Amino acid sequence: MARWQDVVDAEPDFAAEVQRVFDAHLHKTVGTLRRDGAPRLSGLELGFTAGDVTFGMMPGSRKVADLRRDPRTEVHSASFIVEGDEASWQGDARISRRAREVTDPEERKRYTETPPEAHPLFVLDIERVVRVKLDGDPPHLLIQTWRPGQPLEETFAD
């Protein structure tokens, strides 16, 4: 597993671009797995804090129950559109692997001042970071994929 800091250290320009896309909008989408294995999509806010990707949730939310049962997840940015102009689409990004709940009060202090009873807090252990955007002239869809210990992969879709 990797931390966000590992992405920054390995591919600083790529990491900065991915973070810019995530930071462009307050709300993101998280995918979790329901008890029966069906996917669940929910909204959330996340932060890049102390070298990790972190997110909190409402204590009784379904997504908390999903992650406590099965920590596999993927977080997706909103599509990055400049000033409401769809022609200015700047792509999107996603980060996936496992969400780990931070229950130790001392570890939690690295990320937030709120006490554990305030809300559940999760850190994302990263397996894959994907950035999708238009590139080239004429523009083609470029898919960039980062995995721990591997070079940044770039694939153009036709």
Outline the fold blueprint.
Blueprint: H1 4-10, H2 12-23, E1 28-33, E2 39-44, E3 47-49, E4 52-56, H3 62-69, E5 72-76, E6 92-101, H4 105-108, E7 121-135, E8 140-146, E9 153-157
Antiparallel strand pairs: 1-2, 1-5, 3-4, 4-7, 5-6, 6-7, 7-8, 8-9
Helix pairs in contact: 1-2
Please state the structural category: alpha+beta
Determine the strand fraction and express it as a percent band.
35-45%
CATH-assigned fold name: Pnp Oxidase, Chain A
What would the average pLDDT be, to the nearest integer? Answer: 92
- The number of helical runs is 4
Assembly state (oligomeric): single chain
The percentage helix is 10-25%
> Uncertain runs with pLDDT below 50, 5 residues or more?
none
Number of domains: 1
CATH superfamily: Electron Transport, Fmn-binding Protein, Chain A
**Main β-sheet: number of strands, strand sense, barrel status?**
9 strands, antiparallel
Q: N- to C-terminal separation?
A: 32 Å
CATH class: Mainly Beta
| Rounded radius of gyration (Å) | 16 Å
Written as H for each helix and E for each strand, in order along the chain, the element string is HHEEEEHEEHEEE
Number of strands: 9
Annotated CATH architecture? Roll
